[in-house]
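Follow-up to my post from last week.
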Amino acid sequence: MRQLDEYMHDHPVTPRTRDEKDAVVNRLKRIEGQVRGIQKMVEEDRYCVDILVQISAINAALKKVGFSVAERHTKHCVSDAVQTGKGHEAIDELMEVLKQFSK
Amino acid sequence: MRQLDEYMHDHPVTPRTRDEKDAVVNRLKRIEGQVRGIQKMVEEDRYCVDILVQISAINAALKKVGFSVAERHTKHCVSDAVQTGKGHEAIDELMEVLKQFSK
Amino acid sequence: MRQLDEYMHDHPVTPRTRDEKDAVVNRLKRIEGQVRGIQKMVEEDRYCVDILVQISAINAALKKVGFSVAERHTKHCVSDAVQTGKGHEAIDELMEVLKQFSK
Amino acid sequence: MRQLDEYMHDHPVTPRTRDEKDAVVNRLKRIEGQVRGIQKMVEEDRYCVDILVQISAINAALKKVGFSVAERHTKHCVSDAVQTGKGHEAIDELMEVLKQFSK
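User reply:
Got it. Predicted complex:
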């Protein structure tokens, strides 16, 4: 993995546009706010099940961000790797991280 | 579900101790910091796979918090409900939220 | 865990009725058939994505069976344990297996 | 999705070798046996938690098969699509099925 990682870092990847960055960061800011919201719920001794529902919602939101990052990664970095004959390494790496992700 | 919810809210549940609150809130603060960390990674155009690894780590941490909340809920609220003949409703509610959680 | 396990095995639990057994076994038979169906799809060189959709469907069906087993377990074995002062051990065991389950 | 699906079906994909088929089918046969094993456990009124542990094991085994199918799909079908300018459609389809999979 390290090897590909170095390969990837050595080769310029399509950098995210301002709009792309904003879209991801805004979603993460919303998630950050939700995490703060749960802290408040705990402090106020709110009903456990309501807290669990909120945690599930954050998990779902994080997975959504993750998949949008994975999609962009596959459309840019992995596709570039495929076209320069480095596809297998890039795909092994992608699958590895998606496995972790689906836990 | 509403019905049980009302039942639960009407009956005093064992409130969380200061230590219990601190333990959960501290874990959530750490998660909040991790979410902010990903925002920075996106801004700095860091490698997508590194970002995905971080998102997986947050998901795992959130699940851990969720299970500790669910465990306490079961040991207190659900157990109380069992002992006062309201067990089935409380267990249905618990299973419902854990299903959502395991997605 | 062993300790509780022995406790559980030593104490008579409400045995499943014929109907309860049939309901679970029938769902498992359907799942078994789906697993055989995928073997056929692989043999016939069917499109990978169609195979993946089928695998997802089986996973969802298995989770559903699992949650129905967990629900019954909580309504019977765990509730009995709560009422005889062995609740915490039974709940720890339940949470442990649900954690594995939500991976 | 249909559109790509048709595209994929119209274009010859690298068919699985006998060895590749055997590897997947053998894993699925083992899973089929495990599902039958659970039916027996239910019939014999075995302890619920032991049944749940088995169901978790099958879920994990199925995910493993799924990821190996997804990996092969990405290394062959998706990579071919990338090289013939159909990458985005193939990647959208892959992500869609992996999302379902990670539930």
